[in-house]
Amino acid sequence: MQPSERSGILIALCGFALLSVGDAVIKSMAGEFSPLGVAAIRFALGAAGLSLLLGLNEGRAAFRPLNPRLQAVRGICLAAASLCFFSAIFVMPLATAMALAFVSPVIVALLSGPLLGEKVRPAVWVASMIALSGVVLVLRPNLAELGWVALLPLLSAFFFASMIIANRASAGQGSAMSMQVFMQIGAMPVLILAATAGHFSGVESLRLTVPDWTIAARCAVVAVTASAAHWLAYIGTQRAGAATIAPTTYVQMLVATFMGWWWFGDVPDLLTLVGAAIIIGAGLLLWWTTPREPASAATD
After folding, report:
1. pLDDT (tens digit, 9 = 90+) per residue, 180-198?
2. In whole angstroms, what is the distance from residue 144 CA to residue 49 CA?
3. Cβ atoms 174, 66 nearer than 8 A
4. Distance between CA atoms of 227 and 225, rounded to whole angstroms?
5. DSSP collapsed to 3 states, 3-69
6. What burial letters (b/e) apply to 121-134, b meaning 16+ CB within 10 Å?
7. Tens of pLDDT, residues 115-167
8. Confidence (pTM)
């Protein structure tokens, strides 16, 4: 392994670990503010900060997307995935929500057939069945305790997978930073509407109030850590290639489990950990059986 690959893997690991730290910060606001409001504030801050950086580095022309409808789809998928995941970690252990969200690589592989015209390989169906068994293990106590709310991480995984598909379709339509800005700006109307609808829904936990400085500060921390995490993952991918970096995303499960135990006293039971391992195994199976791209395309 070349030194650049080693450094790329290390950088990507730091990025993905940082994402789970941000998720733990979000969970710390459970019961203090609407999860829909948290999502809206977090992405408003992120969109503003990244837009400022994009304007300073690339000028006004960078804000003109080549395909506005596709960028809107990316934003809507990001908003939906974030709303579902933020809501999930407000009501269930962080490690459990994370384990279920890791179904997204399998969903991406399944959706790539009908949406991108790619051939669905036999390994995808095998991995899907394996992942489904893991989902059943992770869901079994939460579905009984929480009801249909326990399905929120799966919905988040579906919308996240849809966003990945849209990202593939929009490859080459702008710089890495402009693509992040388009996605976050596209998510903003959905997030604002969702937060407003939640406020008027009559559900007390979704009622919006003027956030105190601690809520705003934690949302700002998450906006910064998430943006930094995505940037680190991007740099890592540039150095080591997408295929090499792909498995490192599962470090999020380890960090989420540790953060959940350390901050919130959530200790996953044995069957939940087994289910998480099965889901991760399904994702790794997809990675191992996926044909490798040429080196020139690996950093896309």
Report:
1. 899 999 999 999 999 999 9
2. 41
3. yes
4. 6
5. HHHHHHHHHHHHHHHHHHHHHHHHHCCCCCCCHHHHHHHHHHHHHHHHHHHHHHHHCHHHHCCCCHH
6. beebeebbebbeeb
7. 777 677 788 888 888 888 988 888 877 777 778 888 999 999 999 889 888 88
8. 0.86
Angle between the N-to-C axes of helices 68-91 and 94-101, in degrees from 0 to 180, rounded to the nearest 10: 140
Structure tokens at 59: 């000028």
| Structure letter (DSSP) for residue 33 | S
Q: Which amino acid is at 65?
A: P
C-alpha span between 219 and 43 (Å, rounded): 9
| Burial class (CB within 10 angstroms; exposed 0-12, middle 13-18, buried 19+) of 159 | buried
- The whole-angstrom separation of Cα 124 and Cα 132 is 12
Q: Encoding tokens for residue 77?
A: 């998928």
Which residue matches tokens 């406020």? 199
Q: What are phi and psi of 255, to 5 degrees?
A: -65, -40
**Residue type present at position 229:** A
- The domain spans of the chain are 3-297
245: part of which helix (H) or strand (E)? helix 242-245
